[in-house]
Amino acid sequence: MKAKIGVYVCECGPNIGETIDIPRVLETIPALEGYEDVELVPKSFGLLCSPAGKEYLAKEITDNAFTHLVIAACSPRDHNSTFIGVCKEAGLNPYLYKIINIREHCGWIIHDKEAATDKAIQYIRSGISRVLYQSELFERQLEITPDVLVIGGGIAGMEAALSLASEDRKVYLAEKTGELGGKAASFASLLPRQGRGADVIREKIKAVEENEHILVHLNTELESSIGFLGNFEVVLAGNGDDEKTDLKVGATIIATGYRMSDPGSFTGYEYADTDEVYSSLEIERMNGGEGIALRSGAKPASVALIHCVGRQEKGYCSRICCNYMMKIAGYFKKQSGATEVTEFFFDMCLPHKADQEFFDHSVGLGIDFKRVKEIGLSGTSVEFTETGGGKQRMDFDMVVLASSLEPPEGTEALAELLEIDLDERGFFKEAHQTTDPVATSIDGIFVVGASQGPRGVSDSMLLAQATAGRIRSQLKPGGKIVPEVKVSEIMEAYCTGCRTCLEVCGYGAIYFDDQKGISIVNEAVCRGCGNCFGSCPSGALRTKHFTNKQLYREVTEALK
Amino acid sequence: MTEKQQEREFTPKIVGFLCNWCTYAAADLAGSTKLEISPTLTVIRVMCSSRVDHNLLLTTFFEGADGILIAGCHPGDCHYGKGNYYARRRYAVLKKVMEGLGLEPERLQLSWVSASEGNRYADVVNAFSEKIKALGPNPINGRPDF
Ligand SMILES: Cc1cc2nc3c(=O)[nH]c(=O)nc-3n(C[C@H](O)[C@H](O)[C@H](O)COP(=O)(O)OP(=O)(O)OC[C@H]3O[C@@H](n4cnc5c(N)ncnc54)[C@H](O)[C@@H]3O)c2cc1C
Ligand code: SF4
Ligand code: SF4
Ligand code: SF4
Ligand code: FES
Question: What is the residue range of B129's domain?
Answer without folding.
Answer: 14-135
